[in-house]
Amino acid sequence: MKKIILAIAMSILMIQTVQAAGTQYEMRVDGLACPFCAYGIEKKLKAIEGTSNISVDLNKGLVKVEMAEGKSLTEDRMKKLFSDSGFTYRSMKKKAL
Amino acid sequence: MEKVKILNNIKYNVCGLAVLLGLASTAVLAHDPVFGIGPHVLFKDGFEVALGVESEKAADEKEQALQLEVTYGITGDWAIGVDLPYDYKDDGTNSSNGMGDLSVFSKYRFWRKDSLGLQESAAVLVKVITDTASTSKTPFLGKGTTDTILGLTYGYEGRRWYRWAGARYRFNGKNNAGVDRGDKILLDFVGGIRPTPTGYLEPDTVWLLELNGEYGKKASFNGSNLANTGGTEWFISPGIFWTKRNFAIKAGVQIPVSSNLNGSQNESDYRAKLIFEWHL
Predict the structure, then answer these.
(1) How far is CA A93 from CA A52, A81, B229, in A?
(2) What is the CATH number of the domain that holds B72?
(3) Which of A32, A40, A88, B170 shows the greatest Cβ crowding within 10 Å of its Cβ?
């Protein structure tokens, strides 16, 4: 019983630690052929509160961004952001930092 | 004397160097050809500021223009803009300089197909070249008419290869002096290559080669065709597009390779363009 309680407490502590560090989002985006054209993505992501460390990998079609603790990105919001930038959003992965 | 002045300016503005108006008809926009048109627009609520220098020579006639173009992205597929040139003209006898005709334009990208590292798209363009420049100087800085250009363009943009095709029809107006400058058709076929695909924040270079064709109908004066107007010219145009993050430099030169101008007209010697662009 003590071991179970300890395991639960450790898990809660780990989750809290992870949340304190933020979240990295990795978006698959199509149409990314040109660096100059991708500037709109950078500008729009920077306008979202809590974003940092934005990177764009044109060859793999990946856009990565880190979100501060308590901040998050949604699929709908990203779909619109990339459409407004002139590209097509495909999918999103997230991982705790 | 007034009629002679008008006819001399007809010669200047209709023949040879009127083709510079064809240069002025290109909305600059991003990763598009230097002389032709492409389907690129601008990200929503973005601004593009472009400063360009253009130069053209046909025998004794020369024309240079300094152009300021500002574009705004209404949506990710629709942009509008304004184009303001400052012209310098020399017909071999007289020269003039001053503000050219203000233009307003809009481009709408109606089709887009995106895949990994690749974007294919098509757009329509409309541009209105107003009648704001002076027609009191010799040679005229303005056309004395409001002209309209309609364009249709397709583009394929990959990490290494590019291709574009475009067609424009220019509806030229009739001025108060009775001169009806013939309408013009412009065709563009472009190939490009990025020899070394680079990362997003690294300098990026694309080399372009354009084939630009222009067909001008004959002009008329008070209903009578002017013999020494209109005809066809084709150009081969090498160019370069260099960018880093939100700054770009475009440059190219048009080299005439085929000319079939009606009557006696000066054939183009060359045209050149250098453009600096910022995305804001």
Answers:
(1) 16, 16, 62
(2) 2.40.160.40
(3) A32
Cα distances from B70 to residues B244, B276, B279, in angstroms, run: 19, 12, 10
Which of B157, B197, B245 has the CB atom closest to A39's CB atom?
B245
pTM of the entire structure? 0.88
Query: CA of B162: which chain A residue's CA is closest?
Result: A33
Nearest-Cα residue of chain B relative to residue A58: B117
pLDDT at B140: 87
280 residues of chain B, pLDDT tens digit each: 444 444 545 544 444 444 344 444 455 566 799 999 999 999 999 999 999 999 999 999 999 999 999 999 999 999 999 999 999 999 999 999 999 999 999 999 999 999 999 999 999 999 999 999 988 888 989 888 999 999 999 999 999 999 999 999 999 988 888 889 999 999 999 999 999 999 999 999 999 999 999 999 999 998 899 999 999 999 999 999 999 999 999 999 999 999 999 999 999 999 999 999 999 9
| A89, A27 contact by CB (below 8 A) | yes
Residues from chain A contacting residue B114 (CB–CB below 8 Å): 30-31, 87-88
Nearest CB neighbour to A83, from listed B42, B76, B199: B76
The encoded tokens of residue B55 equal 């130069």
Q: Which residue of B has its CA nearest to A62?
A: B116
Q: Do A86 and B198 touch (CB under 8 A)?
A: no
Q: Do B117 and A87 touch (CB under 8 A)?
A: no
Name every chain B residue with its beta carbon within 8 A of the beta carbon of A57: 199-200
CA distances, B238 to each of A5, A51, B212, B257 (Å): 73, 41, 11, 13
Per the structure, the complete domain to which residue B17 belongs is given by 2-279
Interface test with B, best of A27, A28, A39, A78 (most B CBs within 10 A): A39
- What is the count of structural domains for chain B? 1
The count of other CB atoms within 10 Å of the CB of residue B69 is 22
